[in-house]
Design brief:
Layout: H1 5-25, H2 31-44, H3 47-59, H4 61-69, H5 71-74, E1 90-95, E2 100-105, H6 114-117, H7 122-125, H8 127-135, H9 137-143, E3 153-158, E4 163-168, H10 180-184, H11 189-193
Parallel strand pairs: 1-4, 2-3
Fe (iii) ion is lined by residues 5, 106, 108-111, 159.
Length: 198
């Protein structure tokens, strides 16, 4: 399904550090500039970004379709992107419906759309979540206090080194009068992972 992310992460990090050292040595890049760029990326990486994407998709069906078809191409409409690191990661947005509920995981390590969801929670990286959600998704959701009807199918999406996933939750009933900002405020990080309804 996916490569050995845990195995790849360390060599990649080492390569990045070597590259940084080389760039600094040659005076091409200032260590402080790199640090500032990283800090700026992390400061912008918040679940509020994912929530904005969801609220826009709920209100604008054209955007919703573009998002589901090619999330990387649609994100810049909201001033967002999957870049920020050295390399843009592929994002696939999976939409919850009446029949199907989606949950995301990285079974090998902790791949996750950081730019849109903020730093990942400890449980997302835990062995317990990674191993159980694939085999017993309904039980895992119940542990989060989220009970799905027996007729709802659950799709579990396993991130790879190249592809990250985000859930597009269903718009809650009775929110027809809310504007985009108010709708975004309803969306939680857990909803974007799929372990909460919204
Ligand atoms: Fe991973």
């Amino acid at each position: 399904m996916s490569g050995d992310h845990a195995g790849q992460a360390a060599p990649v990090a080492a390569k990045v550090r070597r590259l940084e050292a080389l760039l600094e040595q040659r005076g091409l890049v200032d260590a402080n500039d790199l640090e500032r760029a990283l800090d700026a990326f992390l400061a912008r990486a918040r679940p509020a970004n994912g929530a904005r994407v969801v609220a826009r998709a709920w209100l604008d069906d054209g955007f919703r379709r573009r998002l589901l078809a090619d999330a990387n191409a649609a994100l810049p409409e909201l001033g967002l992107s999957m870049g920020g690191g050295l390399q843009e990661q592929q994002l696939t947005v999976v939409e919850n419906t009446e029949e199907t509920h989606n949950v995301i995981v990285c079974t090998l390590c902790s791949c996750y759309p950081l730019a849109l969801l903020g730093p990942s929670p400890a449980w997302y990286k835990s062995e317990a979540y990674r191993s159980r959600v694939v085999r017993y998704p309904r039980e895992v959701l119940r542990d989060f206090g989220f009970v799905l009807g027996p007729g709802v199918r659950i799709s579990v999406w396993d991130a790879s080194a190249e592809t990250r996933y985000m859930v597009l939750p269903r718009r809650p009933d009775g929110t027809g009068n809310l504007d985009e900002q108010a709708l975004a405020a309803l969306v939680t990080r857990n909803g974007l992972i799929g372990v909460a309804p919204v």
